[in-house]
Amino acid sequence: MGKALILKSSILDKHSNSNKMVDYFIEKWLNENSENTITIRNLAKNQVPVLDNELLDALCKNDIELTERQKKALNLSNSLILELKEHDLIVIAAPMYNFHIPTQLKNYFDFVIRAGVTFCYTKLGSQGLIKGKKAIILTTRGGIYKDTPSDLLTPYMNLILNFIGITDIEYIFSEGLALGNESVIQSQNNAYESINNMLF
Ligand SMILES: Cc1cc2nc3c(=O)[nH]c(=O)nc-3n(C[C@H](O)[C@H](O)[C@H](O)COP(=O)(O)O)c2cc1C
Hints:
Blueprint: E1 3-8, H1 17-32, E2 37-42, H2 53-60, H3 68-86, E3 89-93, H4 103-112, E4 119-122, E5 125-128, E6 134-140, H5 153-163, E7 168-174, H6 181-196
Parallel strand pairs: 1-2, 1-3, 3-6, 6-7
Antiparallel strand pairs: 4-5
Helix pairs in contact: 1-6, 2-3
Bound molecules: flavin mononucleotide (FMN).
Flavin mononucleotide binds near residues 96, 97, 99 and 142.
């Protein structure tokens, strides 16, 4: 039995390849064990605000009187972190946009990566405070970049998740989605097969 948090981040809505993969994953996850549950957070539909100077103060300082906008941001950040802590499996759809993750997913990380809350500084360096989680990253791309220096997304996702303590990370790639129908079908079938072969 497990609780999966599903983070969607595509801006392409019904035409999204990563949403399609995530939905396939959800079906497999729910069929796997009748007690498995999911929480879906669509970061493109319910966007986390851009972190700016005012909101950063709300997330970092304990000794200031908060404006209404700051209170809202702090509540959102706290609830996103609580949600993260309450799930054991974190499934992240990470399409490649301009060689990186979507802005909407970056905004999410800006709200959950907080000193003293999800990571802390020690004499030995920083330490992640989100323990005992597994992450599955479903990443879709128009081109083919896996295992090349142009794939900046994968090392970034490893770094940011490791930073908060999530070190058990598995990737499913669906690439070549802009390279014609045959490539799309092949790519999606490979991704579906990888999902089918996953052991939970
Ligand atoms: C704004 C934008 C930027 C993109 N940038 C890249 C890119 O840098 N490299 C790439 O291989 N594909 C790129 N693509 C193609 C997407 O990776 C591809 O459409 C993929 O299916 C996106 O996932 P999604 O359908 O879930 O949004 C881009 C697509 C969009 C909409």
